[in-house]
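Dear support,

We are seeing what looks like truncated structure output for some complexes. This example has four components. We would appreciate it if you could run it in full and send us the complete token output so we can diff it against ours.
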Amino acid sequence: MTPQRMAIMDYLDGNTQHPSAAEVYEAVLRKFPTMSFATVYNTLRILKERGLLAELSLDPAKKRFDANPAPHHHLICVNCRKILDVMRPFDLSLPQDDRHRFRILGNHVDFYGICPRCASPEPAAKPGKGR
Amino acid sequence: MTPQRMAIMDYLDGNTQHPSAAEVYEAVLRKFPTMSFATVYNTLRILKERGLLAELSLDPAKKRFDANPAPHHHLICVNCRKILDVMRPFDLSLPQDDRHRFRILGNHVDFYGICPRCASPEPAAKPGKGR
DNA sequence: CTGGCTGCAAATCTTTTGCATCCTG
DNA sequence: CAGGATGCAAAAGATTTGCAGCCAG
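Here is the complete output from our reference environment:
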């Protein structure tokens, strides 16, 4: 655990914004002006491999990172791509017929919709590119 | 509907492989050797905008495309990234408390696990890069 | 000294864009 | 001829890799 890694974990810990690697980089840069992209990416990969954070595939444009260790689901605005956590558990056992002989490890639910800001007559946020 | 677009739809229609844009390109290239990346990407975007196909965020490394119009879920091998369809519906109404005043449009469940091939002692597939 | 980590640059991969051309009506 | 589609090349954005230098054990 180097100072850089701690800074990255500090930034992600308790952060519910699901930041992208670029956002992590910008944030940590304030503390470590010499921090490089490569270190951020390498560190995020290593932390992910060690199970300290999760990489989310919710945004096709880029990876987003989540340091919340509790299993949870997500609510995504299809317009501005804002992502909120849904901590409520769901009972989602996959029936044998649908398992295709996979060993099931877990599941994840995405709810998608329009957030209040984007639903308002004068949308506050531009649409994300949503790649 | 141009011949190129029909070729792309033909390739995707009934295809349960959830191919990436590059895979679509390679496949359609056999029929249209002059087909360019740009046309594939532009066409995929247009078909998506018209609701003829869905763009999946299941693979952080790249977009995957699915022409199956029925709402359904996915079962993903975390090792080789193989993706299977789960046509069974789930009752997943999000309680008011968790809606954060979003207008909910839908949901999608990913089940993840290890497929039989990757679980076998001599794994047949290399791990995907999983970006 | 050795191994791991950092920082920089270059490379890679995926996707998008600009633009000239072509086809269709 | 006007609009839309294609093909090519270049650009853009995200991520990875190669490599030299640095630091700690």
